[in-house]
Amino acid sequence: MVAGDYYGSAFGAIFSAYMERPRLNRVLARVIWGSDVRPYYESMRAIAEAPRESTIVDCPCGAGPAFRSLDPGRPGRYVAADLSPSMLRRASSRAFKRDLGKIEVVRASATDLPLEAGEANLYMSLWGLHCFDDPRTALAEAARVLEPDGRLVGCCFVLGGNGLRSRLLLHPGRGDLGPIGSENDILGWLRESGFELSSRHRSGAMLYFDARLGGDPASAVP
After folding, report:
1. Percentage of residues of the chain with pLDDT beyond 90
2. Is residue 31 part of a domain?
């Protein structure tokens, strides 16, 4: 991720606040990006759909908006990883307020996670790939920590298309943005890492995807 704690600014507090409020975020995304963020909140259902004893990775976890889908009494392991100290503090606070004491909030890079190979059942990559210095390696690391047929659910900004908003607002290497990839880049990196798409959806500059590691090629989404 981009060096420094970009989210330690006032922007980080504002960002965390509206990400936790689906209705507000929906309006802002439509006005600013011309995009629909409902699939983002719907994707969090994957947490409840995972087997009860699952190990779940949430990277980058941000301030913990996905915690809303985690049952406080759920067994298993939930690893919330991020590089931003301020976001990790917010995530820890949110976990405490939701009585989610078992969440492991850790400072770690998406390219070097503190998990053994094949340890995770579900990997949530929500609004992270466009921030990473090396999104391709981050997806390879997701594949490393997932078990065979493990599930990857994600969303990110992508380059490409003719939207004026995207051209004006998406500048690789500025602010919290890394190099950013096109939709074809993301799909190619997923394939390289051994993922087979179950579904994908594009809304303006936003790409949503659901994939399985080493899934059945016959069922892949082209």
Report:
1. 81
2. yes
